[in-house]
Amino acid sequence: MPPRILHLDIDGFLASVEQILDPALKGRPVAVGSGVVASRSYEAKARGVETAMSMLEARRRCPELVVRDGDAQVVERFRQRVAEVLGDFVPVVEVCSLDDMYGDLRGLVELRQPRGAVELAERIRSAVRQVTGLSVSQGIGSSRTLARMATCHAKPGGILEVPVGEEMNFLDSHAVEDLPGVGRRSAELLHALRLHKVSDLRRVERELLRQTFGKRGEDLFWRARGFDAGLGAEPREPEVAATVPSQSISRETSFEASDCRDFLFGMLAYLLDRAATELRGRELLAKRVSLRLRFVDGMSREQQRSLTQASDRTDELQELARSLCLRLLDERRVLVRLLGVSLGTLLPRVGAQGELFAAEEERRGGLFAALDRVRGRHGFGKLVLGNANELLGRLPNGDQGFRLRTPSLSK
After folding, report:
1. What dotted CATH number matches 5-161?
2. Rounded to two decimals, what is the model's pTM?
3. Tens digits of per-residue pLDDT, 121-149?
4. Cα 208–chain centre separation
5. What are the φ and ψ backbone dihedral angles of 202, each rounded to 5 degrees?
6. How many other C-beta atoms can be found within 10 angstroms of the C-beta atom of residue 118?
7. Domain segments of the chain: what residues?
8. For domain 249-409, which architecture applies?
9. Which residues of 13-44 are buried (b: 16+ CB within 10 A; e: fewer)?
């Protein structure tokens, strides 16, 4: 059976989440972002609003545009749920970015039937809609390249399969800039060489592409033939790599430039609290804490330090992160516009060596476990710990926590 890859893209993801959370926004033009449009609804797109457009220009084109900041934690939960639904239908799921993922269809019984892959995609679309309320577009092909391009044709909410044997006909209907990985600059160079369609590109000799574009030329040669780039003399075999848990847990966000240490320590406490909560949820311990600050002049600074013993306790991790933050702030007395914290060197909690006479430590660990249970039942935002109280009144706070300025920067 030839390889069959499914690509799934969540339509207008961030804006769609806002419309689900607030039904009054259904059918209205919505954009999510701060300064720049990170996501827009299809109603906003119809009025000329595009992603990466300045919010000022978006409002000029669409005066009735509703702008929302977005909520990083809520968005992440929606994405995870979509991935779980896809995983109920296909054996391997690879989450690629904020709003798209691949599924490996090889070996599925459904593919032996006429329209089997499309019918499977229809069931996936229906399940995602039922579980999350989101609309998804799906493309099916013999490679990731073809599946992704098919998804673009299927938007919004549709399904398109590139049949086996029809790959070249499908590709020939596209402009070169429709190939994945061909950005604006590459497209300009190809057009300058009078290469406008994929069929034009496929007639160019491989060596000439390599001499003109370097390694990118090798990729172009194979993508014009429907493959997922090349490795040496051969095209890369289509594959979907199962998404594995990250080897670190990170949280970061940008904000209005500030040198107020109370605010910065409050943001640090909140981001670390979120990271530590995930750490405990995954039954892991962290031995290394890393901190990153980006300043208003564009410079970034990072510090990291290891604990004597791996921990999942928010207070221990917070103490180390605060000391790193103090050091960075003392090094550069410049306004800060982004703060990020990362927990690394992750170890399984089961089997971790404990400390002698650690009864008090165990009681404190039990306290955080109890906090996690309360938050799991009533919402993360119901309990605000330590210095994170400094954010009260500065940022909107709901059941799921503070609404951060740039959810696209918050992982």
Report:
1. 3.30.70.270
2. 0.69
3. 999 999 999 999 999 999 999 999 999 99
4. 36
5. -70, -20
6. 15
7. 5-161, 167-235, 249-409
8. 2-Layer Sandwich (3.30)
9. bbbbbbbeeeeebeeebbbbbbebbbbbbbbb
